[in-house]
Amino acid sequence: MSAAASPILLEAQGVEKRYDKFVALGGVDLKVRANTVHSVIGPNGAGKTTLFHMLTGTKTVSGGRILFDGHDVTREPDHRRVRRGMARSFQVTSLFLTLPVRENLRLAAQGVAPAMALNCWSPPVGRRSCADTVASVLARLGLERHADTPAGNLSHGQQRRLEVGMALAARPKAIFLDEPTSGMGIDDLDDMKRLIQGLKDEHTVVLIEHNMGIVMDISDTITVMQQGRVLAEGLPDAIRADDRVRSAYLGNMITGGKA
Ligand SMILES: Nc1ncnc2c1ncn2[C@@H]1O[C@H](COP(=O)(O)OP(=O)(O)OP(=O)(O)O)[C@@H](O)[C@H]1O
Ligand SMILES: [Mg+2]
After folding, report:
1. Are 68 and 193 contained in the same domain?
2. Are 124 and 145 contacting, i.e. CB atoms less than 8 angstroms apart?
3. Which of 32, 84, 130, 193 has the fewest Cβ atoms nearer than 10 Å?
4. What are the residue ranges in the chain where pLDDT is below 50?
5. What's the structural domain count of the chain?
6. 70 burial class (0-12, 13-18, 19+ CB within 10 angstroms)?
7. DSSP for residue 170
8. CA–CA separation, 47 vs 12, rounded Å?
9. Which residues, in sequence order, are CB contacts of 111 under 8 Å at separation 6+?
10. Which of 139, 170, 201 is where one domain is finished?
């Protein structure tokens, strides 16, 4: 099935967020199709992270609706949305640095964070499938060789991949990644890019990313935000060619490198 034909998993309808009189989101519409990489780009302060907070329920909306997997989740707290299959990538600070990589993933799969209460080790999910989850996430991350290494001994790039893995261990339908490559060296960038690109076989990826080379390479759809609104949306080639986008944001950076 082509990306354009897959069903809509996540939809924002006129989502608004105000902080007193400041309008951080001025009515954002978004449709994210299942098993795609959907990137959200735009200049600093455009409202990308705020939109993620609205979609995942970290903060409440001031207006509009959010639909996920056939449910209106607008008023649901984040832990309920996690149970419906949303996962955010964790920060490095939330890794258990003294514990081996495998243990980190096991704890994430087990739902140590209350929000991830999958109850992985008890029926009907079962011990077996939990161990399978850890093994398959390890393979995805390319960290099998480091399964017994304490997370604190991994390189920065490996730790960033493990953060993504912690979210994956909850077996989400949709995974939200906010600047997963920030602070990364060039070698680690390729590994992260491949990891994200590979996720859409089983997951839907919503990605905030400033590295235009990566965005253009791996996105099925790109939404461009500016000042709390959607400026443009489309396939990478259309976004690359869009004059409004170029003047608002991309300029001559479109060919690659960091924004
Ligand atoms: N708690 C808050 N109170 C007031 N204003 C806020 C709050 N959180 C965010 N904002 C403002 O909302 C706007 C959007 O911020 P947001 O963090 O969503 O931008 P962003 O697109 O993620 O930017 P960046 O690329 O720098 O991460 C900014 O002007 C920011 O200052
Ligand atoms: Mg942000």
Report:
1. yes
2. no
3. 84
4. 113-117, 123-124, 252, 254-259
5. 2
6. exposed
7. T
8. 14
9. 117, 118, 119, 120, 170
10. 170
Residues having CB closer than 6 A to ligand 1 are: 19, 22, 24, 42, 44-50
Confidence (pLDDT) at 128: 61
Distance separating alpha carbons of residues 104 and 183, to the nearest angstrom: 22
Pick from 73, 164, 143, 81: nearest CA to 117: 81
**176 and 250, same domain (yes or no):** yes
Q: Which ligand is nearest to the CA of 249?
A: 1
Residue with CA at minimum distance from ligand 1 atom 10 = 24
Query: Using CA atoms, how far apart are residues 51 and 207, in angstroms rounded to an integer?
Result: 11
76 burial class (0-12, 13-18, 19+ CB within 10 angstroms)? middle
Residue with CA closest to ligand 1 atom 1: 19
Do 111 and 63 share a domain, yes or no? no
- CB atoms under 10 Å from CB of 22, counted, come to 8
Q: What is the DSSP letter of 211?
A: B
Give the Å distance between the CA of 148 and the centre of ligand 2. 33
Tokens 């990589």: give the residue. Answer: 101
Among candidate residues 125, 145, 170, the one where a domain is terminated: 170
Render pLDDT for 217-253 as a digit per residue (tens, 0 to 9): 999 999 999 999 999 999 999 999 999 888 876 554 5
Q: How far is ligand 2, taken at its centre, from the CA of residue 48, in Å?
A: 5
Q: Are residues 120 and 216 in the same domain?
A: no
Q: How far is the CA of 54 from the centre of ligand 1 (A)?
A: 12
